[in-house]
Amino acid sequence: MRSWPQVYLPPPPKGLNHKPLSLFDSYSKTKKEISEENISSYVCGITPYDATHLGHAATYLSFDLIHRYLLACGKKLYFVENITDIDDPLLERAARDNQDWKELALSQIDLFRTDMTTLRVIPPSHYEGVVESMEIIIDSIQEYISADLTYKIEDDIYLQLDKVSGFPENLPFTFDAALNIFAERGGDPNRVGKINPLDPLLWRGYRRGEPSWEAPFGAGRPGWHVECVAIALAFLPKNSLSSITLQGGGSDLVFPHHYMTAIQSKALTRMEFAAHYVHAGMIGLDGEKMSKSKGNLIFVSKLLESGVRPEAIRIALFLDHYQSDRMWSGDLLIRAQNLLAKLDQALAMMEVAPTFPVISMIAEALADNLDTPKVLQLIELWCDETLSGSNGGSAGEMSRALDTYLGIAL
Ligand code: ZN
């Protein structure tokens, strides 16, 4: 799938010594430094039927900050993002609206690309749809079958987790809690015939009225997790200790999606899938969880249409920490717009407060698990100092750094 246009990144200030980026890992529950020089980053993409709401934006902006910081450190970034362009929710939405599922997906992918471009998100080098990757996904399922790791219920193929070393290590919940969450998020723990109730579906055999693809093991369509395993392993260069450096997405993917992706990948490669598993918190609205069923989703495109600047959306989503579940509100947007107005004013001054020390502190706060609340406090303080007459800095240097590290181009 076509990605979106590349984003120009100004070089970081000369002489700035970057600390290694340390990120909170969702499975080891510790902060871990990224030490690799070549970064393979896989961020799970959208199911194209409700793009791009603020929950999406918060996730992709968080990973954009990670990518920006790693690039500022001089690392080489390989970044892949997928699109789940065949999935139950997409088919259900298309049926509900009497629309062709392919057309719905394409229109939503287009909208997503436009939003990502406007928000200045660094594009993936491979932006891969599931449908266009069907051949590699089918090959990958064939590998599980050949390795005798699967079983069938009717025409559906499951991975037998008990045969995979590493299961159930790192299960982020008790087994019973995991069963409930698995059921809530597309799993089928109660299906008669399953060996382990958590066994993930690799291939769903053809059902009348559903799209399907021919495969040596029968027509059908792939399960959710195997798609990401196949795409990540096919398009990202391998690291030495784990298949990839970083797997990311929203925190609703910690289980089952990323847990299953990791274990399924390990079953094929016999090595750890990712060195770092990083997740962004969920965005709610005015005290409630933002969800399709409540109909309270806020869309990036609607905010932009109403005149909100993309930089204000970035700042609003950075005012709280990326890992925290947090609320979107009119007040939050006003706080962001006020800070943006102050920045505009400060950067337009003939003389500005010293910039190199504050940029160093901004980089240091980002290195500490993306402490954006602290970053924005530092920026506000710098604006206040500038507006009260402090001098000795360079507005150009600050403006470039805001773009390099935060994607705020003023
Ligand atoms: Zn995924």
Question: Can you tell me about this structure?
Answer:
By secondary structure, the protein is of the alpha/beta class. It folds into two domains: 33-289, Rossmann fold (3-Layer(aba) Sandwich), CATH 3.40.50; 312-320 and 330-406, Anticodon-binding domain of a subclass of class I aminoacyl-tRNA synthetases (Four Helix Bundle (Hemerythrin (Met), subunit A), Up-down Bundle), CATH 1.20.120. Helix content is 41%, strand content 16%. It is built from 13 helices and 14 strands. The protein has a five-stranded parallel beta sheet. A four-stranded antiparallel beta sheet has the order 6-7-8-9. Strands 13-12-14 form a three-stranded mixed beta sheet. A hairpin with a 2-residue loop joins β6 and β7 (156-159). α4 crosses α6 and α11 (356-367) runs antiparallel to α12 (372-387). The radius of gyration is 22 Å and the shape is globular. The model has no long low-confidence stretch (mean pLDDT 96). Bound molecules: zinc ion.
Which descriptors would you attach to this protein?
single chain; alpha/beta; Rossmann fold; Four Helix Bundle (Hemerythrin (Met), subunit A); 2 domains; 41% helix; binds zinc ion
Topology:
Blueprint: E1 22-24, E2 31-33, E3 38-43, H1 54-72, E4 76-83, H2 88-96, H3 101-118, E5 126-129, H4 134-146, E6 150-153, E7 156-159, H5 175-184, E8 201-205, E9 220-222, H6 224-235, E10 242-250, H7 254-269, E11 272-280, E12 283-285, E13 288-289, H8 300-305, H9 310-318, E14 326-328, H10 330-347, H11 356-367, H12 372-387, H13 395-406
Parallel strand pairs: 3-4, 3-10, 4-5, 10-11, 12-14
Antiparallel strand pairs: 1-2, 6-7, 7-8, 8-9, 12-13
Helix pairs in contact: 4-6, 6-7, 9-10, 10-12, 11-12, 11-13
Bound molecules: zinc ion.
Zinc ion binds at residues 44, 82, 228, 257.
